Amino acid sequence: QKEVEQNSGPLSVPEGAIASLNCTYSDRGSQSFFWYRQYSGKSPELIMFIYSNGDKEDGRFTAQLNKASQYVSLLIRDSQPSDSATYLCAALSGGGADGLTFGKGTHLIIQP
Amino acid sequence: EADIYQTPRYLVIGTGKKITLECSQTMGHDKMYWYQQDPGMELHLIHYSYGVNSTEKGDLSSESTVSRIRTEHFPLTLESARPSHTSQYLCATEGGNSEAFFGQGTRLTVV
């Protein structure tokens, strides 16, 4: 059973601070990992993806992957109130035939 | 501009009615998906397609059916709507890096 686990939150972070979102996955064969942002009542939007161990940066966002620990994280620097949303972690398993496995999401609140 | 279109955005319908949720894409992607998501809850995969004439059931059992006659079009049909079908339905395509691109969703309410 492929699983992606996230703390549901809410995670409350002051404006301007770094928000750290974490995700673990059960399938060691997972190849690629994705972070999505979902505002209430809207559809998920892709933030970034990562498939190699280490860090990947895109603007204020940094994704981190540790395959040995089966751990993925997303850092948001200089957090803004507009970053308040639910963040979904997703994994593509080795077969990838039936698409991504999504976590339940972490609700992030940026306090002005 | 390449995109994914879902219609209608909102639908309120009576129990027992047949409905079709439309999903069209101009991204040229072969793989397409339907997810179901209740408010504040996780995404559940209900159907997917590898391409024309390919349809598969997802992890969550669903009374809906899908068809894929054209690459661009992946409609979802409920033959007889019930209040338990009230949810948000999200259509998605798969990009070259296996990322999912989502449409704006259809919020269905069955009364």
Keywords:
heterodimer; A: 112 residues; 6-stranded mixed β-sheet; 0% helix; B: 111 residues; mainly beta; 7-stranded mixed β-sheet; 4-stranded antiparallel β-sheet; 11 strands; 45% strand
Structure, explained:
- The complex is a heterodimer of chains A (112) and B (111).
- Chain A has 112 residues and is mostly beta strands.
- Helices cover 0% and strands 54% of the residues of chain A.
- Chain A is built from no helices and 11 strands.
- Chain A has strands at 4-5, 11-14, 19-25, 32-38, 45-50, 54-58, 61-66, 71-76, 85-92, 100-102, 106-111.
- The model of chain A has no long low-confidence stretch (mean pLDDT 94).
- Chain B is built from no helices and 11 strands.
- Chain B has strands at 4-7, 10-13, 19-25, 32-37, 44-49, 56-57, 65-66, 76-78, 87-94, 100-102, 106-110.
- In chain B, strands 2, 4, 5, 6, 9, 10 and 11 form a 7-stranded mixed beta sheet that branches.
- The radius of gyration of chain B is 13 Å and the shape is globular.
- The mean pLDDT of chain B is 94.
Record field, number of beta strands of chain B: 11
Percent of residues in helices of chain B: under 10%
The rounded distance between the terminal residues' Cα atoms of chain A is: 40 Å
Which percent band covers the strand fraction of chain B?
A: over 45%
Write the H/E string of chain A, N to C.
EEEEEEEEEEE
Mean pLDDT of chain B: 94
Shape of chain B: globular
Distance between the termini of chain B: 37 Å
Would you list the SSEs of chain B in sequence order as H and E?
EEEEEEEEEEE
What is the mean pLDDT of chain A? 94
Main structural class of chain B: mainly beta
Low-confidence stretches of chain A: none
Q: Structural class, from secondary structure content of chain A? A: mainly beta
Number of helices of chain B: 0
Count, helices of chain A? 0
Main sheet: strands, sense, barrel of chain B: 7 strands, mixed
Weakly predicted, low-confidence segments of chain B: none
What value does the Rg of chain A take, in angstroms?
13 Å
Q: How many β strands of chain A by DSSP? A: 11
